[in-house]
Model the fold of this input.
Amino acid sequence: MKNLIILLLLAFTSSLQGQTSIVSTNPVAETILTGNYNPVTYLATTILNRPDTLSAGINAAVNSDSLKINILRLSAFYNRNTGSDTLSSSNGVGAARRWVYSTLQRYSASSQNRLIPSYLQFTQSICSVNQHRDIFAVLPGIDTTDKSIIIIEGHLDSRCEGVCDSLCKAEGVEDNASGTALVLELARVMSRYSYNHTLVFLITIGEEQGLYGAMAFATFAQQKGIKIKAVLNNDVIGGIICGNTSSAPSCPGPGNLDSTQVRLFSQGAFNSPHKGLARFVKLEYNEQLKGVSAVPMTISIMSPEDRTGRGGDHIPFRQLGFTAIRFTSANEDGNANVTSPSYTDRQHTTRDTLGASKTHNGIIDSFFVNFPYLGRNAIINGNAAAMLGIGPKQPDLILTAPSAYTLRIQIIKQTQYHQYRIGLRTLTNDWDTLYTLTGKLIDTIQNLNPATYFVSVMSVDSNGIESLPSTEYTASTTSINELKENKGIQLLGNRPNPFDEATYIDVLVDEYIAYKQASIEVKDNGGRLVKTLPLRLEKGINEVLFEHDYERSGVYYYTLVIDGNMIQTKEMIFAD
Done:
């Protein structure tokens, strides 16, 4: 996780220039990634791929003790820094990655050798070391008609206060043995089943120095023409304790515990495939597993791509055009500002360890990672990846508002399905309402409240599984008088509202207007200018992200300003 998003982006640019010789050490794994293989070669003796079998099986088989064993093993390598020892058999990143590889081999042996492990080797100067290796394993899909793959990912490397300190104690338990253990556990569990799409269990290196391992894999995919349907990145995914500091959107305060919520971060708002993926993940969990879970989870779809000033391995994939999201615990122990003399939290320090001894006898009896919570997050990941792996094709639609308070939807792509689900939302990142179309491709939704609606559609196959949401479209359901008053440009309600630490502000432009400068001005309740956000106006939805930056909670006002003229003002609420 990075402290400055600007540095992160610069690192991404330089890494693309500096990364060379990106190769899969197992040619068979590369052949599977590109979809150029015979699925019969990798068929299981018994094909288990019904959605109820997959959901129930993943839910039952993910084991908190298994997660704990793997985290204990990962912490025992002492230091997994990207620049640490590669020759030792017990310490350093070399020993850690060999253990990960052998663990994947062991899981494959228990699944009819269908899980194919490999390293992704790349050359890049990181912490004075020039050659590095991601570890991944591919589970071949049984249908190569659509060659797109699904990636479940977490980073292996750890760090303490010095970003390249390869000698310090850097167990990196929350950041990110938790994510690595989650990926390994899903490789163990999910390789028992079959999916139409190929699944990839990816464990990267070099995240702490600039997302280098993720950049290497994303670049490799781009160079080889590998199609990626979705990336599920898991980083800081097992802790439940709120530290003295945390990067906004923040947890409530020191010592707060939250073991029933997970945050999904992704880029964009309107028509964002990444937000669409996040909504899909939440829908599949809520409808398939939440009702039968002993401890139901809340999935929070966050507005920004990551915490303020931070970043993770989903970003390089997104920058190269692949759909990607990040899973992160509701609570974090620290904002990683290790240079502050007052920083006492664990993240990015030698204190990111297994736990503490309440009795002071040297035996850890209070763990900083909550293993059942990590297991529940693994199940959410696994269920989403499984449904992506067997689900139908993505449709498209035409959206119109033929009269006041109505929306007309027509399915125009992938019209072969008997059923479709239409998602409508207004002010939040999630759908407000889901409508189902059965046996038809055209429908009119009537008696809607006057609002601007954002609409997408999902195909539903004969097993009741949804596709990823389509392109998102927008339309306003207003009265005739309101339509007359709309002169081609409209300031929309911010989303979400109330908001936590970030919210999107949208401007709808129906017809292009000539202008020199446009912006959104945000003011507090006393009229003080808080922030000016430059805005480019093009036909359609134009959005800017307002990050709260620890201002006071309460009512704020945002105004669309064009060439010095105040066009429209709306109210929003920051709820701390």
User: Anything to note?
Assistant: The domain at 488-574 is CATH 2.60.40.1930 (Immunoglobulin-like). The longest helix spans residues 371-390.
